C-alpha cells in the first residue's frame, strides 16, 4: 500500500508493475513517459478485476481523454516492483476519472500521484457511449475521493 501521507480509499486496487532497467532516463530515474505506461498496465489489470473475467470495459471500448501526473520524488531502478494503487474518483454519463498513487515495495516514498479521464466508447460507431449500469456499479464499488493535484488549485479553495 502507498504511504499514509496520501489518503487512499480502503477499496482501492493495488497492482505491482515491474520496474525495468530500460525504464531509466539519462539521470538514472524512471523516465516520465514510463509512468504513463505504469498507469496503463495497472488500469488493464484493475479493469480485469473490477469488471470481471467474462468481459472487460477494455473490450467494450474505452479511450484515455486526459492524463495528469504530479511527480513527487525520483524513482530509481530496483528489483522491487512499483506499486500503483488506483480507484475510480468520478463518474459521469460517458466518462470517468481514475486516481493513482505510485509507490514501490520496500519504500515509504510516494513517487507520483496522477489522474486520468477515460471515455467509454462504441468502437463500431466510433463515438462515445453512455456508461452501462453494470459498469457504473463496478466503478462505484471502487469509488473514492479524487486526489488534489497541483493543477487543482481552484478545488483547494472550496
* Continuous helix count: 4
SS-based structural class? alpha+beta
Strand tally is 6
Rg (C-alpha, Å):
16 Å
**What would the principal axes of the Cα set say about the shape?**
globular
Strand content: 25-35%
CATH architecture: Roll
The named CATH superfamily: Hotdog Thioesterase
The third-level CATH topology is Thiol Ester Dehydrase, Chain A
Uncertain segments of ≥5 residues (pLDDT<50)?
none
Mean pLDDT: 90
CATH top level is: Alpha Beta
Question: What is the number of domains?
Answer: 1
Q: What percent of the residues sit in helical stretches (DSSP H or I)?
A: 10-25%
What string gives the helices and strands in order?
EHHEEEEEHH
Distance between the termini: 29 Å
Biggest sheet: strands, sense, closure? Answer: 6 strands, antiparallel
Topology:
Blueprint: E1 13-17, H1 32-51, H2 57-60, E2 62-71, E3 82-91, E4 95-104, E5 112-122, E6 127-128, H3 133-140, H4 153-156
Antiparallel strand pairs: 1-3, 2-5, 3-4, 4-5, 5-6
What can you see in these coordinates?
- The protein has a single domain (13-156), classed as Hotdog Thioesterase (Thiol Ester Dehydrase, Chain A, Roll).
- 23% of the residues lie in helices and 30% in strands.
- It is built from four helices and six strands.
- It has helices spanning 32-51, 57-60, 133-140, 153-156; strands spanning 13-17, 62-71, 82-91, 95-104, 112-122, 127-128.
- Strands 1, 2, 3, 4, 5 and 6 form a six-stranded antiparallel sheet that branches.
- It is globular, with a radius of gyration of 16 Å.
- The two termini are 29 Å apart.
- The mean pLDDT is 90.
- InterPro entries: 4-hydroxybenzoyl-CoA_TE, HotDog_dom_sf.
